[in-house]
Structures are given as structure tokens and as C-alpha cells.
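Quiz preparation item.
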């Protein structure tokens, strides 16, 4: 297992889940997180749940950030938290963001769905990198990791 890099604010694993090819938001977030001093393992697009979990274990990550833009997040993320538990990282912070649903669903309903699936925070479309950074900082502080 990789130790936390000295002087860095925290270890983040970032990627886009499933067969989703949208990479622009992912690259923007990577840039913003690195600029702010985080150690980022960016898996890019076409990630499976196991890709995220294996990278999190390997890098002793504080947090996994799952991106999904193409509308199939609910399907792609089924059982994600349970898999983390099985892999021994059940308490890892899980974020999800992007365009999480197709069609006219209410945001509150979408958010509730992903919170019930075990995500700690669910970000709506058009979330700006600074909003994500603020949440990361708050959550790492709350958990005493910073
Ligand atoms: C460019 C684009 C494409 C390009 C992607 C090129 C590439 N290599 O990235 C191409 C042409 C390949 C494409 C294909 C498709 N696309 Co497209 N695409 C877009 C488009 C126009 C822009 C997406 C983008 O880059 N936005 C800019 C970035 C910066 O924004 P973002 O991704 O939303 O990310 C920001 C936030 O959401 C947030 N965020 C993103 N990820 C994460 C992760 C976390 C953890 C957090 C916290 C936050 C976060 O932070 C980012 C920075 O602010 C959008 C429409 C739009 N205007 O948004 C449609 C759109 C995303 N596409 C769509 C669709 C349907 C498709 C296709 C299925 C179309 C088709 N039938 O083939 C395919 C899917 C192919 C695949 N396998 O994924 C839909 C998705 C519908 C939905 N989710 O409800 C959209 C919304 C268009 C629409 N209105 O219908 N697409």
C-alpha cells in the first residue's frame, strides 16, 4: 500500500464510471484538485467499480470521486458502497457528480437515490470545481485527516 505523499493535503481517486466517454469535466477537476495541493490518481474514462476500489487501496486514498455524464450512473453504481466494504475500505468518502440521470427527474429525488446507495455527497450538473474543493476540505477536516 502506498503511503500518503508528504506535504499533500489528501489522496483522491478520480474517474468516470462505466462506458462513459465524457472526459472534459474529469480533466478540469484533476487540474483544479492538483493545483490546490491534493495528490490525485485520475483513472480517466471507462472505469469499473473495481478500478476505483483497487486504486483507492493502492494509494491509501481518503476519497473516491466518481464522475458520470452520460446518464447511466444509477446502473453503473449499483453496489459500489457494498464492494468498498467487502474490499476493507467501507468507510472511504464517496462523491458522485456529473449528469446523473436522463430525462426530467427532480434533483431531490436523484440526490436521495445516490445518498441511499451510500455516497456521502451528490453533486448536481454544472457544479464548479471550487464547490467540490470546498466540500473535500470540509469532509477531510471533519474526519480529522487534515
Ligand atoms: C462534449 C459532449 C460529448 C462528446 C464527449 C467528448 C469527450 N471526449 O469528452 C461526445 C460527442 C463524444 C459525446 C457523446 C455522447 N453524449 Co455527450 N455531451 C457533450 C456535451 C456537449 C458537453 C459535455 C462537457 O464536456 N461539458 C463540459 C464539462 C466541463 O462539464 P461536465 O462534464 O458537466 O463537468 C462539470 C460538472 O458536471 C462537474 N463534474 C463532472 N464530473 C464530476 C465528478 C464529480 C465527482 C464531481 C463532484 C463533479 C463532477 O464538474 C465539471 C466542471 O464544472 C454535453 C451537453 C452539455 N452542454 O453539457 C453532452 C451530453 C453530456 N451528452 C449526452 C449524451 C446522451 C451523449 C451520448 C449518449 C450521445 C449518443 N447518443 O451517442 C454519447 C455518449 C458516449 C459515451 N460512451 O459516453 C447527454 C447526457 C444526457 C444525460 N446525462 O442526461 C448530454 C447532457 C447532452 C444532452 N443534453 O442530451 N458527448
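Solution:
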Amino acid at each position: 500500500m502506498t503511503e500518503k505523499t508528504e506535504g499533500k493535503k489528501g489522496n483522491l481517486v478520480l474517474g468516470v464510471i462505466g462506458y462513459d466517454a465524457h472526459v472534459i469535466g474529469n480533466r478540469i477537476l484533476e487540474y483544479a484538485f492538483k493545483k490546490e495541493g491534493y495528490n490525485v490518481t485520475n483513472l480517466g474514462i471507462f472505469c469499473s467499480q473495481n478500478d476505483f476500489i483497487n486504486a483507492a487501496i493502492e494509494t491509501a486514498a481518503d476519497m473516491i470521486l466518481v464522475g458520470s455524464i452520460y446518464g447511466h450512473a444509477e446502473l453503473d453504481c449499483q453496489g459500489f458502497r457494498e464492494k468498498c466494504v467487502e474490499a476493507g475500505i467501507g468507510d472511504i468518502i464517496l462523491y458522485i457528480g456529473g449528469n446523473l440521470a436522463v430525462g426530467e427527474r427532480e434533483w431531490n429525488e436523484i440526490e436521495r437515490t445516490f445518498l441511499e446507495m451510500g455516497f456521502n455527497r451528490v453533486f448536481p450538473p454544472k457544479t464548479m470545481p471550487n464547490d467540490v474543493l470546498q466540500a473535500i476540505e470540509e469532509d477531510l477536516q471533519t474526519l480529522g485527516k487534515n
